[in-house]
Amino acid sequence: MDIAIEQSPPLATGRTTSEGKALRWVVAALLATLALQLPLVLNRAINWDEFYHYSQVVKLANGTLTEPLQTLYTRAFVWVPGLPGLGVEHIIIIRLFMLACELTTLACIAGMATRFTDRTTGLLCALAYLSASFIFRHGTSFRFDPPATALLMTSAWLLLRWGLRPPTMLAAALLAGTSTVLTVKTMLYAPVFVGIAWLLWTEGGRQREDLVRLVVLAFGVMSFAALIYALHAGTLGEESGDEARNLVSRAGSSMFTLGNPLYRWFIFVFAITSPLLAIATLAAPAVIWRESGSNAHKIALTGMWLPLTTLLFYQNTAPYYYVFMMAPVAVAASPAIAVAQRRYGARFIAGVMLLCASAVLVIEPENTTERQRQIQREAERLFPKGVSYFDACAMLGTFPKVNIFMTPWGIQHYLTGNLPSMVEAMKREPVPLLVKNDWMFDDALRTKNKVGVLLPQDLAAIRDTYVPFWGPFWIAGKIVTTGNRPVKWNVRVPGAYTVRDGAMIIEGRRFAKDEVITLNRGTYILSAEEESARLLWGNRLAKPVSNPPKEPYFMPF
């Protein structure tokens, strides 16, 4: 008996020491993964969406933003365009805020998973989320996904941690309501909060009182959302209401579809490049319902797992969507990760996750950040006051982009006439610049092929209006070759034009090389006098002396 008493403390101490070492190893792996991610925060090329989101911030700063939905994030960064430097640098500054959102999400994942398992497993769940390929790459990108995820996960963690206390309910409702205005995707977290509500109602012991509190909580979310929306939209002009209704109508008609087949491929890529999280996620439902524990716990965890099913019906499940979707799913995977930890050890699992994150850096494609900087730098030099332009994604964030953001969702509504055409934009205002930064414009300008993502009238207009100037910059103008009969040219971009390369006859009047003429909208008769000549928009625009950057201008997902 004495021997047993003397031996028990050393055994307990040894177990505690082993658990402590495992915990420290997981923390070290988590910190190392964050250190590996930091170069991506500061150096990875700006993505299409990031350029577009920055352009919305510029619109708010200039007082031209009219879209009240999904633009609340612009309020936080309205001061950024006033800083020195190019738009690329400004976006990198904003990424630091996105990093803070990611850290908040990681803390919430660890805290929520600890609620259902233990501290080491909770930190492993956070590491699994961070080291997953798409999250590692896009977790700090400038989109509304990181802040929306942080808001919703913090709201969920507060409820799990402190229950239905009035201060907790107030904070949780404010956070969820803010996210509702930030992005319509907030509704995809409904199963998460339903599961938590069931858990709190079942375990609270005050079922009638807690039911009333849950109703008040739901009302609070809607009330905060309405208030925040009203405050945000109230400063955006009278047309903001119409913009919101149109967006809701378009989203309602296409938000839930079978989606882009390419996005199905992304599911496979994510599973291959994030194997531990993928396996744990797929095994989670079986492990959750096989393990001992209350049904309320199992229902709550199942609710956190259900956002994974949005990959089957949500329209836009590009890689950056996984930042938003996988946060609660990582918590749902905690029972499966706990089983793996008991079998293989936390240090081994953490080490594999760290290796997966390292592999993402190894296979990173060529960085195109300097090319993006050069494009922005030359645009600001050529057009110091800015000009209206067409492109795919608002790459020149401080310039007014006048066509839609050419995403699959946007193109779908543009082709059906729900969004304005480029011809309509050209009738509203002069659009002298087209930035050829996507395959659709390359096909439109360099081939005679049909381009299915452009309306026929837009395709004809841009082919007839723009000529190459420097790299991705195509300027309004016309090339007239020697020996051709006079040609009719429909001027869609009024303004000053410069004759280049040789003399040109315009409406019977001779203009020498480098002479400037002002043209209004309408049809003009052009011909070259002795050799081919160009007519270029602008008052003797000087072509950049730097060699244009080679394509591509973006890094793949």
Provide an overview of this structure:
The protein has 557 residues and is of the alpha+beta class. The chain has 21 helices and 11 strands. It has helices at 2-43, 48-62, 87-116, 119-131, 133-138, 145-162, 166-182, 190-203, 207-233, 240-254, 261-273, 275-290, 295-305, 321-332, 334-344, 346-362, 369-382, 408-415, 422-428, 439-446, 456-465, and strands spanning 389-390, 433-435, 466-470, 473-480, 487-491, 495-500, 504-506, 509-511, 516-519, 522-528, 533-537. The strands form 2 sheets. Strands 1, 2, 3, 4, 6, 9 and 11 form a 7-stranded mixed sheet that branches. It has a 4-stranded antiparallel sheet with strand order 5-10-7-8, with no helix packed on it. The chain is elongated and about 90 Å long. The N and C termini lie far apart (65 Å). The relative contact order is 0.10.
Mean pLDDT: 92
Supply Rg.
28 Å
Total DSSP E strands: 11
How many H/I helical runs? 21
Strand content: 5-15%
Structural class: alpha+beta
The end-to-end span amounts to 65 Å
Characteristics of this structure?
557 residues; seven-stranded mixed sheet; four-stranded antiparallel sheet; 21 helices; 11 strands
Task: Walk me through the topology.
Layout: H1 2-43, H2 48-62, H3 87-116, H4 119-131, H5 133-138, H6 145-162, H7 166-182, H8 190-203, H9 207-233, H10 240-254, H11 261-273, H12 275-290, H13 295-305, H14 321-332, H15 334-344, H16 346-362, H17 369-382, E1 389-390, H18 408-415, H19 422-428, E2 433-435, H20 439-446, H21 456-465, E3 466-470, E4 473-480, E5 487-491, E6 495-500, E7 504-506, E8 509-511, E9 516-519, E10 522-528, E11 533-537
Parallel strand pairs: 1-2
Antiparallel strand pairs: 2-4, 3-4, 4-11, 5-10, 6-9, 6-11, 7-8, 7-10
Helix pairs in contact: 1-4, 1-16, 3-4, 3-6, 3-14, 4-14, 4-15, 4-16, 6-7, 6-14, 7-9, 8-9, 8-13, 11-12, 12-13, 12-15, 13-14, 15-16
